[in-house]
Amino acid sequence: VQLVESGGGLVQPGGSLRLSCANSIVTNHRYCMGWFRQAPGKAREGVAGIGTNGVAAAADSVKGRFTISRDSAKTTLFLEMNSLKPDDTAMYYCATGVYCANVLSPSEYDTWGQGTQVTVS
Fold it and tell me: b vs e for 1-21, b when ≥16 Cβ sit within 10 Å of the residue's Cβ?
């Protein structure tokens, strides 16, 4: 397994969680990394991503609440989630790609983790 997510769970509205993604793939700065989520019956959507140039982007629905970051060795990707809402309930996945013109587009990524469930209730 090359990407392993952790940190999901059950949290009350307004609460916080920190997701982590251990990455054994990225070895240089050419890779983009991102967080995605998928709720039952809905399409997978981009939450936040970091491009090959290190610039981060986030979906409008999570701006100001979620923060993406990675460690200096680029082996762990994080998603700090604050002020969680019931609408944030979903399976959260991390992913990597060689080059991502749009870091929030799932089609730009070729390697995915198994996901970690986040439930806000």
Answer: eebebebbeebeeeeebebbb
